Automatic annotation (TrEMBL):
InterPro entries, per database record: GP_PDE_dom, PLC-like_Pdiesterase_TIM-brl
Domain of life (superkingdom): Bacteria
Occurrences of domain GP-PDE (ranges): 4-243
Molecular-function GO term, any one: phosphoric diester hydrolase activity
Gene Ontology BP annotations: lipid metabolic process
Pfam annotation, one family: GDPD
Protein name as annotated: Glycerophosphoryl diester phosphodiesterase
């Protein structure tokens, strides 16, 4: 059986500061795929950042949506993780696209759900789509979101593979209806909700199944045996090794 694709969560975030170019370079080397979180700055720049605020992963403070790129470009987004990465900047989606084109990295872009209303959501989608159009055809892409209403907006911008993300415990029996309404052909359930029966059912219904976030090699082997298509992990190196011979 072909092993599942491995996708580095926030890059290879066990090895380098999450959502930075350093983490994406490592993911490129380890598995060729990276997941990243995108949000909109006040000036319309698409920034790669998981949290709503800057404190946890940068030397800055305050809300991401209120900052401009000029405000955050000089922040250190690496030193909190390890002094070796001090000075690593925040990344824009445009920086990630440049890197992807340079090293042949495929990307899973996770659209955050903006707090500022539908107009901000539309701007995030349009600005993300503008960047994705720059991606070399040799690099694959998946666009995912917990907010499934974002996905039809993305479909209106172009033909990217779309994935419905489900929080732990939020995968209802109506997953198929949700995916159809969102126009998604890929499902990203959370590890605790995944069973062999569910994977069989989803794949039989024609969906690809990528599971997040899987850091235990035993879990990864079990998922590989279930026939999942992809595994999103903080440690692509370890998980690739674990599933190499399932
Ligand atoms: O896309 C999988 C995973 O990244 C979703 O959760 O909170 O880490 O963005 P989160
Ligand atoms: Mg994410």
């Amino acid at each position: 059986m072909k092993p599942p694709r491995v996708i580095g969560h926030r890059g290879a975030c066990a090895h380098a500061p999450e959502n930075t170019l350093a983490a994406f370079r490592l993911a490129a080397e380890m598995c060729g795929w990276a997941e990243l979180d995108v949000d909109l700055l006040a000036d319309g720049t698409v920034v790669v950042c998981h949290d709503r605020t800057l404190e946890r992963t940068t030397t800055g403070s305050g809300r991401v949506e209120e900052a401009t790129w000029d405000d955050v470009a000089g922040l250190d987004a690496g030193g909190w993780f390890d002094p070796r990465f001090a000075g690593e900047p925040l990344a824009r989606l445009s920086d990630v696209i440049d890197l992807a084109n340079e090293v042949g990295l495929s990307i899973n872009v996770e659209l955050k759900s903006p707090l500022g209303g539908a107009e901000i959501a539309r701007r995030l989608v349009a600005a993300t789509a503008a960047q994705l159009r720059r991606l070399d055809p040799g690099c694959d892409v998946i666009v995912s979101s917990f907010n499934h209403l974002m996905l039809p907006l993305m479909a209106a911008e172009g033909e990217w593979p779309l994935a419905c993300l489900f929080e732990a415990g939020q995968l209802g029996e109506d997953w198929r209806t949700r995916a159809e309404l969102a126009g998604a052909r890929i499902l990203h359930p959370c590890l605790p909700d995944v069973t062999a029966g569910l994977v069989t059912e989803m794949r039989a219904a024609g969906y690809r199944v990528n599971v997040w976030t899987v850091n235990d090699p035993e879990d990864a082997r079990a998922l590989a045996r279930m026939g999942v298509d992809g595994i999103i992990t903080n440690d692509p190196e370890a998980i690739r090794a674990a599933i190499a011979q399932v």
